[in-house]
Amino acid sequence: MTGHDQHPHPTVAPQAGHEQLYCPACGRPVETVITRRKVLGAWVPAWGPGPCRNTDCPAYQPPDG
Fold it and tell me: Which of 8, 11, 48, 49 has the least CB density, counted as fewest CB within 10 Å?
């Protein structure tokens, strides 16, 4: 894998032992997304909250598509 292999969008991670993450604005559950970050020259996974899909939330982001 080279440094040029960048994914345009984060990948949704499977729910394999990771805690459920919540939207900081409305408190509803959101998807867990996985991104990559570089640590000591190696790419490692980083899990974080995905976009909120609640239409009543101020942090709402419509799905791409």
Answer: 8
Distance CA 8, CA 65 (A): 14
- Report the amino acid identity of residue 13: A
Tell me the C-alpha to C-alpha distance, in Å, between residue 38 and each of 46, 49, 59.
Answer: 10, 19, 28
Q: Which amino acid, one-letter code, is at 19?
A: E
Q: Please state the pTM of the whole predicted model.
A: 0.55
* Region for residue 40 given its phi and psi (left: phi exceeds 0; alpha: psi -120 to 50; beta: otherwise): left
- Cβ(27)–Cβ(13) below 8 Å: no
Check whether 15 has a pLDDT greater than 70. no
